[in-house]
Specification:
With about 850 residues, this protein is of the alpha/beta class. The chain is about 25% helix and about 30% strand. The chain contains 20 helices and 45 strands. The strands form eleven sheets. Strands 1, 11, 13, 14, 15, 16, 17, 18 and 19 form a nine-stranded mixed sheet that branches. Strands 4-3-2-5-6-10-7 form a seven-stranded mixed sheet, with helices on both faces. Helix 9 runs antiparallel to helix 10. The radius of gyration is 32 Å and the shape is globular.
Length: about 850
């Protein structure tokens, strides 16, 4: 190795590293043992086991989540689908920073709850998803593979499928005839053993004599925390799912069942040589790291830098590229941490556009005694010499222009690029990478203990919030103009009785324009639709309201929104993710709006809306012409509810809004006086009943659900006013649904008072009757809706809109309509029928009278 060879290139992932973190990293570096934990979703992982493996066994441990959890629920906001996946990916990364494990993914999409593994494998694509798991095993090269779930049982089909794929991949990863295209980049790999981590709480299974039992409930004296405490902090990062966890103390026996490979007798890594000497060329690395570990002192960490540099040099002789890359990254991070070196690259803006230029200030501050010289700085294509020896407690600073090339790609999440299939993402790049690297980085070359080390620092904008303090976000490359519609699918309501080509479907849609350089906003409408305005010149951020119209009968289509100027043309919407526990990011999505004309009888009433988390039904109703007013906690507790004709309760509002739980009786009183209350689904706690009634009659909430969005729906009471007025609900209204039919159905109820309206079932199961329950109460009505209308409204499913219009009608209005109008079967010709009937009655009566007079 020549003196000028670079020791390593490090992407700096943390500003500071304390003594606890350095000690943990040194401990893990002394072992080359690797464990891969496999499950289906964010939150499936056993965080206490991960903490035990990283802190006690010192094994390099990775959690492979087949999906990013994008089909799940959201307790912290309205984000769904791809945005939900981005949130849960970041939450997983936050969890891993706490428990010390790493993170990988496949390209499988979480398409919602599935009850069967064969369905999950079919939607994902069994062979291609197996290839992703094989790729993860060949790349990570684990000695032990652990599955979280069994292959059969009464749990999520994704869970079962993850275990099946892990077992198949365990063998396929070692077979050169399976997925040979991967062998250009990785080698075949045979893990020592495959184990099943038998659950001991939520899905307990009977113990077997040959189960391996390991106590994972130990104590980490370095951090002063038990593995259960570390696990609780890690699991609590799954905030979008409401998975805050209590600390656990004391012994925690965990069971493991042997599935394949060499059985273990006492420990998970039995029979695995985890010493560096077992890696070809690794003995010298292990020796240097051992010396560094023994010599580490909390008050003088810089003393081990020469040993770390020795280890970095020795790594060039290691034959295993995976081990080499991992160790270089970890050791280089330790070099920076032990020196107390602070490196930052700051810009005054949060986003740039291709073709822009921005000034970046790069700072270096040495805070421990170490021999480090800053020799060069590179930004983009430009490099400048620095040649500055760093002196303890003396700030070194360089300013440099960063030129963003015209062809620089926008900052995106690779798995969101391209049009995904029902069960898979199709984005380019490595499927296993959790997140893309920061898009714009400053490359700082240092000479540490006589050897060059390259450190890449993300260019960031730093602001000070008066409440949260300092907030950082990576500098992003974004389009010059983005157009973000308030909804990505809208229903255009059409007047009842309209004639095609005469009456029009109409709605209005807000579009938020983010303008970074002047240009034009352009709308391209599908055939049969008209939009106003079609183009707008823009030179600043603004909001535009689009008037969308079409003739009755226009086919469903897609509006496309563009921004354009002399630099190009783009079609991007942007969503800023802002949650306190996550880094602030911009997500770029296609700027498209699906549009559909639907004949709707919109009720003339005011609706009070009690919002729950992640529910866009109210916004859909507003666009359809319904007057909707959001209710505050004070409105719920003390407001005049009688100014509304109906009150709509959002999904999970009974789980998340204390004011609603405390004042639920006011809703029932409102119904008793003649109002309509529509309660969208609430979740049932695992171990107890929901402690507030959802209906003014006995009803037990269950966990029943129908996951097949195409499952047949039977009308149990086809002539009930809620299924006939103003729209007659038929089988066609349940076509085009997305992800599922519904969830958290009623399990039992007062059969004398509560009327079940629908029946449905997943394949091979008994019918579920609790998806739509109605109870008359005084002059009004209360309805429980387990149907997933909250997913259908954002997807602009016509039948969901038609059904909701029925549900919101006042009971008295429905009764009056039924009393004064002929049966719905008369349709739009009812007046003609009445006229004909009257004429026939007159003719027949006259004929009878004439005949009678003639006979007499």
């Amino acid at each position: 190795m020549t003196p000028q060879a670079v020791l390593a290139t490090l992407l700096l992932t943390m500003l500071n590293m304390n003594a606890v973190e350095m000690r943990h990293r040194l401990d893990r570096l002394t072992s080359v043992g690797r464990v891969l934990y496999v499950a289906a979703h964010p939150d499936d992982e056993n965080t206490q086991l991960l903490a035990y493996l990283t802190h006690a066994v010192h094994a390099r441990t990775t959690y492979l989540s087949l999906t990013r959890g994008d089909g799940g629920q959201n307790l912290i906001g309205s984000e769904q689908s791809p945005l939900m996946g981005v949130i849960r990916t970041h939450e997983l990364m936050a969890a891993r920073r706490i428990d010390g494990a790493e993170q990988m993914f496949t390209r499988a999409r979480d398409f919602g709850y599935s009850k069967r593994s064969d369905e999950a494998l079919a939607v994902w694509g069994r062979e291609v998803t197996l290839g992703d798991v094989v790729w993860a095993m060949r790349r990570f090269r684990p000695h032990v593979v652990i599955t979280r779930f069994p292959e059969e049982g009464s749990t999520h089909g994704h869970h079962l499928a993850s275990a099946i794929l892990a077992r198949e991949a365990f063998a396929a990863a070692a077979d050169p005839t399976r997925f040979p295209e991967q062998l250009e980049r990785v080698e075949v790999w045979q893990a020592h053993r495959l184990l099943y981590n038998v659950p001991n709480r939520f899905m307990p299974e009977e113990a077997r004599p040959d189960d391996l039992v390991v106590d994972i409930g130990g104590y980490d004296p370095v951090s002063g925390l038990s593995h259960g405490e570390i696990a609780a902090a890690s699991r609590t990062m799954h905030k979008s799912q409401g998975f805050g966890a209590a600390r656990r103390f004391g012994p925690e026996p965990e069971r493991f069942r042997h599935l394949a490979g060499e059985p273990a007798e006492r420990e998970l890594l039995d029979g695995v040589d985890t010493d560096w000497a077992s890696v070809p060329g690794g003995a010298a690395v292990g020796s240097a790291l051992d010396t560094a570990r023994r010599g580490f002192r909390d008050d003088a960490p810089a003393a081990i830098i020469p040993d770390l540099v020795t280890a970095l040099r020795a790594l060039d002789e290691v034959a295993d590229p995976g081990v080499q890359a991992w160790a270089k990254r970890e050791i280089a991070q330790l070099v920076v941490g032990a020196s107390g070196l602070l490196l930052e690259a700051r810009a005054e803006v949060a986003a740039v556009v291709p073709g822009d230029e921005v000034e970046v200030t790069v700072q270096a501050l040495l805070r421990n005694d170490a021999e480090i010289t800053w020799t060069s700085l590179a930004l983009g294509e430009e490099t400048q010499a620095v040649s500055t020896p760093l002196v303890r407690h003396q700030l070194a600073e360089q300013r440099m222009k960063l030129r963003i090339g015209a062809s620089t790609p926008h900052t995106t999440f690779p798995w969101l690029e391209g049009v995904p299939g029902p069960g898979r993402y199709v984005g380019e790049g490595d499927s296993d990478r959790p997140l893309p690297d920061p898009p714009l980085r400053a490359r700082i070359r240092l000479v540490v203990a006589g050897a060059p080390l390259d450190v890449e620092v993300p260019v960031q904008r730093v602001v000070v919030d008066p409440i949260a303090g300092e907030k950082r976000r990576d500098l992003e490359v974004l389009p010059a103009i983005t157009a973000t519609p308030a909804a990505h699918a809208v229903v255009l309501p059409c007047p009842v009785g309209g004639v095609a080509g005469v009456a029009r479907c109409e709605t209005r849609l807000r579009v938020d324009l983010r303008v970074r350089h002047p240009g034009r906003f352009v709308v391209e409408a599908p055939e049969g639709y008209r939009v106003s305005p079609e183009t707008v010149d823009v030179d600043r951020d603004r909001v535009i309201e689009l008037a969308i119209a079409a003739d009755v009968g226009a086919k469903p289509g897609t509006l496309r929104l563009f921004g354009e100027n002399e630099r190009g043309r783009w079609s991007f919407a942007e969503r800023a993710l802002r949650h306190d526990h996550l880094p602030e990011r911009t997500v770029l999505l296609p700027a498209e709006v699906k549009v559909d004309c639907v004949v709707l009888d919109v009720p003339d009433l005011r609706v009070g809306h009690i919002a729950g988390p992640g529910d866009e039904v109210a916004d859909g109703l507003r666009r359809a012409g319904v007057t909707v007013e959001d209710l505050s906690d004070d409105d719920i507790a003390n407001g005049d509810l009688d100014r509304f004709g109906a009150i709509l309760v959002g999904v999970r509002a009974f789980n998340t809004r204390d004011a609603l739980r405390a004042s639920h009786h006011r809703l029932f009183d409102f119904a008793e006086r003649g109002g309509t209350v529509v309660v969208q689904y609430a979740t049932k706690p695992r171990t107890e009943e929901l402690d507030v009634p959802l209906l003014p009659a006995a009803m037990t909430l269950g966990r029943g659900r129908v996951t097949d969005e195409t499952a047949a729906v039977s009308l149990l009471a086809p002539d009930h006013p809620l299924l006939t007025t103003p729209h007659r609900i038929e089988a066609a209204d349940f076509e085009g649904w997305v992800q599922e039919r519904g969830l958290y159905f009623g399990a039992s109820w007062d059969e004398e008072r509560v009327v079940p309206l629908l029946s449905m079932a997943d394949q091979g199961e008994e019918p579920e009757r609790g998806s739509l329950l109605a109870v008359d109460h005084g002059k009004g009505r209360v309805i429980y809706v387990g149907l997933s209308l909250f997913r259908q409204f954002p997807a602009a499913v016509p039948g969901a809109y038609r059904l909701m219009m029925n549900l919101l009608q006042r009971r008295t209005a429905i009764g009056a309509a039924l009393e004064t109008e002929p049966p719905p079967v008369l349709g739009s010709w009812r007046k003609l029928y009445l006229v004909v009937l009257i004429i026939l009655a007159v003719v027949i009566g006259s004929f009878y009278l004439l005949t009678r007079r003639y006979r007499s």
